[in-house]
Write the structure tokens for this entry.
Amino acid sequence: MKTCYILAAWMVLVPFFLQAQPELAFEDIFMDKTMRIDYFHVGDANTEIVTVDHIYQYGIWAGSRVKLIDRFNNGLYYVKIFDPESGRLVYSRGFNSYFGEYQTSSPGTFAESG
């Protein structure tokens, strides 16, 4: 029964801690540009390697300017950007890739670029 009370208290308090640091405004952190990273995702059922191939700069940012932090924790992979001075997380997005599906279904080596 004590565990239930602790779990209930945890479920009530966690949202307050997650909202303790308000998100910064997009304009305070980023330039109005888009950065695309091409990468190679290579491996097999036991190994996974990700390497950066090329970084591009494009025109205006088309993503959200309001919800910069992804709090849903969806996907096997995450892009996270931290402020170098404070160490504070300023942007994150979760995503999946075809590599995870390949790891469980096909023998051999798989290469992905995105």
